Amino acid sequence: MAKRNEEELKLSYLTLRSPDNDLIPLLRSASSDDLGILVEFILNASTSQLEIVPEFKLNNPRYSEKIYNGDHRLYCDEISAEIQKFGGNTLANMLRGGQGVPYAEIVRDVADHMGVNYNKSSSVEIIEGQIQLKVLENAYEKMSDSERREFLKEVGIDTVSGIPSALPVMLLQSAIKIGGFASYKIAVIVANAIARALLGRGLSFAAGATLTRTMSVLAGPIGWAITALWTVIDLAGPAYRVTVPTVLHIAYIRQKSIIESCRNCNEVIPNSSTFCPSCGTKLK
Question: Which residues form the Zinc-ribbon domain (predicted)?
Answer without folding.
Answer: 262-283
